């Protein structure tokens, strides 16, 4: 989309466009970096959840066995 800009406003317009462009690039870069980090951490998160599940199951079965003593 073309815009008509007064010659005295060209520098201001260029600065604003540069700032907006930089923000868009930063937003995309940060999103990419976080998605990449999450993909790398996913196996560890799965292992952690499995360990917690096993520990809970063991705790509850231990708790039930104590009640029967």
From TrEMBL:
It holds the Pfam family IQ. PANTHER family: IQ CALMODULIN-BINDING MOTIF CONTAINING PROTEIN 1, IQ CALMODULIN-BINDING MOTIF-CONTAINING PROTEIN 1. This is IQ calmodulin-binding motif-containing protein 1.
């Amino acid at each position: 989309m073309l815009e008509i800009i007064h010659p005295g406003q060209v520098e201001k317009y260029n600065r604003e466009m540069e700032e907006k462009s930089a923000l868009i690039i930063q937003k995309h870069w940060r999103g990419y970096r976080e998605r990449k980090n999450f993909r790398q951490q996913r196996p560890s998160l799965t292992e952690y959840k499995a360990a917690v599940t096993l520990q809970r199951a063991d705790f509850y079965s231990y708790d039930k066995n104590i009640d029967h003593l």
